[in-house]
Task: structure prediction
Amino acid sequence: MKSFNKRHIIMTIAIIAIYLLGKILIDVGLIDSYLQLNIMVIGINIILAVSLNLITGFTGQFTLGHAAFMAIGAYTSAVITAKLNLPFIVGIIAAGLMAAIAGVLIGIPTLRLKGDYLAIATLGFGEIIRILALNTDYIGGAIGFNDIPQYTNWTWIYSMVVLTIVLITNFINSYHGRACISIRENEIAAEAMGINTTFYKVLAFAIGAFFAGIAGALYANYFYFIKPDSFGFMKSIDILVIVVFGGMGSIPGSIVGAIALTVISTFLQSIGNLRMVIYAVILFLIMLYRPSGLMGKTEIKFLKKKEAKKYVSAKS
Amino acid sequence: MSVLKVSNLSKAFGGIKAVTDVSLNVEKGEIIGLIGPNGAGKTTFFNLLTGIYQPTSGEIEYDLNIKVSSKDFKPYKMTHYGVARTFQNIRLFQNMTVVENVLIGFHNGLKYSVASSLFRLPQYYKSERNTYEKAIKLLDKFDLLDKKDSYARNLSYGDQRRLEIARALAAEPKLLLLDEPAAGMNPKETAELTELIKWIREQFDLTIILIEHDMSLVMNICERLFVFDYGHLIASGLPEEIRNNPRVIKAYLGEEAN
Result:
């Protein structure tokens, strides 16, 4: 368990290489604006899926209100960049913080609930946020929020995606993260082992909400225009589908899931009316043949030793 | 020195009195057996001891790490007070590896902040490395080292029982509560478990309270027994005394026909 080993260096080089490759391809013009749009959507979906995975996949709290945190982030960043004319970084940080605060406020009362009840409570929370946005004239109400400066570019989206994945992976592989996973596995035993389950549920909620808020900021500052209906119940379901599709409790799964589903729905756009039917059939088939998601429970483990891997592969 | 003092403890669920007016003392270093027919209130008593239930009346006092009474009990604070437990129906973290299960046991011993974990500050590496080494040592003592990276759900039943005890010991308790540790074990496994319990008491300087139906185990290792029936503490004393106590015989076998 060295603090900085070979794998870290290879990972860092790979991360920088992919960034430079993307940057060059965009600057040269090989990636046109349509492809860029899809890359942005993929990036935002990765952040949303990884952050929801922390709450639902790792901590085991089934929530249907993730889009509400995205909405809070989107509107916060929109107000800060468009109305107050502050730099984008302020918008991003404020978006994350506002969403995290909302996560704590909603988490404390609702996380006493379990399973289906929690899902319904968070669903209600999502609707409250949407309706609040719908009825607040300052942020455009039902007409939507217009003329948000377009700051989101390859650099922003890429760095935020990397930041989200690295931080959440680090969290999962710490004793705080293990505490969250143990709550998913057996809440009573977790408590008996000295884990303050309420604290860790709210913490997971707050961290998940923070990154969803950042995703919202990136979304608002890419599309110029946001409206409350973009962050409704269906958006929450979309994110949940990515997480389940990729594999609950697997960060690589969420990444692959976000890319695969965004690509599939983009390709299906040319088909027209049958689009949603085929999309549903694809989902259905994959869940039928890979019930634990594309990547199962694969985790990014920097700490796992080689011998450990050998043992697991010998077992399975 | 008495480490646990229970005075006039009662617990009622609506009209049902699960535990009625129980008073007892446990001395440091003892192995105590808690026996009684099914539904006698033994597990409810354990749940009271670990803060899962709050007493309806009466009080529980510990004098382990610090002096504390049942008013301040919360399930997640008990390891901090020096009390750890296992469960009647094994409650391992099934989809976590053996070593991760034990690492959870060390939860209270770890202190680095959320920021240290997010940004991998030096504190993180130091604590994680130390704890990992401690976990490996503990698993070695329990003969589970070669299985450290398999999932808990893939262990054999006996190994799961042992892992649950190892996980409880990782919390570094002074008092260990074992809820039917020999349930579902064959005679050979029970004999091994008997040795194991004796050994951990010496090794970890523990006081142990165990609920058990297997009389070979109870009579073999317990220094004192408490017998529960219908929520009442009907007898207490040395195993020999309990064996011949008419009230205990009546509770288990019913009355002789005259």
Summary: Chain B touches chain A through 47 residues (CB under 8 Å). Residues 227 and 235 of chain B are 5 Å apart (CA to CA).
